[in-house]
Amino acid sequence: MTWQKELKSNINNINDLKKYFYISKRECILLKKIVKRHPMSVSKFYLSLINFEDPEDPLKKMIIPSLEELNLTGSYDTSDEKSNTKFLGFQHKYSQTGLLLATHKCASYCRFCFRKRMIGLSKEEILQNLSRAIRYIENHKEINNVLISGGDPFMLSTKIIADFLEKLTDIPSLDFIRFGTKIPVYFPNRFLLDEELIVILKKYSKRKKKIYIVLQVEHPKEITKELQIVVNKLIDSGIILNSQTVLLKGVNDSPEILSKLQNKLVSIGVNPYYIFQCRPVKRVKNSFQLPLYKGYKIIEEAKKMLNGHSKRFKYVMSHKTGKIEILGIMNDEIYFKYHQAKDKKNSSRFFKKKLIKSAGWLDDFD
Predict the structure, then answer these.
(1) Which residue, among 218, 217, 212, 279, has the nearest Cα to 251 in the 3D structure?
(2) R_g of the chain computed on alpha carbons
(3) What domain range is 100 assigned to?
(4) In terms of DSSP bridges, do strands 210-216 and 145-149 run parallel, antiparallel, or are they unpaired?
(5) Integer Cα distance of 231 and 266 in angstroms
(6) Is the full-model pTM beyond 0.90?
(7) What's the total number of domains in the chain?
(8) In which band, very low, low, confident or very high, does the pLDDT at 30 lie, cut at 50, 70 and 90?
(9) What value does the mean pLDDT of the chain take?
(10) Residue 336, exposed/middle/buried by CB under 10 A (0-12, 13-18, 19+)?
(11) How far apart, in whole angstroms, are the C-alpha atoms of residue 324 and residue 192?
(12) In what order do the strands lie in the sheet with 90-91?
């Protein structure tokens, strides 16, 4: 079976979920309304990792729709991606980085997705013209790296991925190319059943530009033997692997879980990169966001259980003004620093706010 055919067996409706756990009639009606607005899709592989006898199973929380998604507190574009869009599917927020939104599809749909407004729904923000993006990058020499995201770019055919790499690696001003993905976690057979994909990645990474893959991993249970095989294949192909994690209420919001996750990632050859504050996205904020005060405390406790390599990550929030690192808390103040800034005047700016223990986002302090 090809990986494309295997994905067609994903669980994508509430009636099929009833085979795995009890759903009341009322819940069924409401969940169907949610799924109509924000599609559900779960690979059979990821489904097999969930303990449905545990109502608090962290993987279940991340992938199965819940009634908390009825809460509309927040915004659908918390990082103001609209203002950074230069044309369909191409964003340029930070001077050195170009962002390509290559697809609106994923192998499974995270319920905490910050692009919930578009994932699985609309192609209105997806790149339609790669040549136009190439011209833009060539004309903006300050761009030295490109991030290919979406959706998940490895939902594209291997032929299309090869086309992206062929054109991007020919641009002299680019130093490296990144892919953001959770497919090795959700659906490792994308890499295990398609040897041509590995060959393509190896070809371009070893002969032209260095390729980075940023894995999205939220919980130690996601580090399966299948993921480890994929990681080994990618490392052998010359790919550099980083990880990013969203801090999520009820999923990884304990020092023990977070430290175990980071240590396991390092043990399999993946470099910790970012831990993100969950964005205040509609139908996400209420379910998953922790206050910054609590998040900082959890992360600092976790660091006590980490070695130098496993605590190289930065705790950040992707605010509309930039990527802001949460540095520390002293007395009744919380300290921040711009790790990256949309406006150059904010680059590396250090600032503080009066501590509000319930605040989950920078705007909550105003």
Answers:
(1) 218
(2) 20
(3) 3-365
(4) unpaired
(5) 11
(6) yes
(7) 1
(8) very high
(9) 96
(10) buried
(11) 37
(12) 85-87, 90-91, 97-101, 145-149, 176-181, 210-216, 240-247, 271-277, 314-319, 322-330, 333-341, 350-354
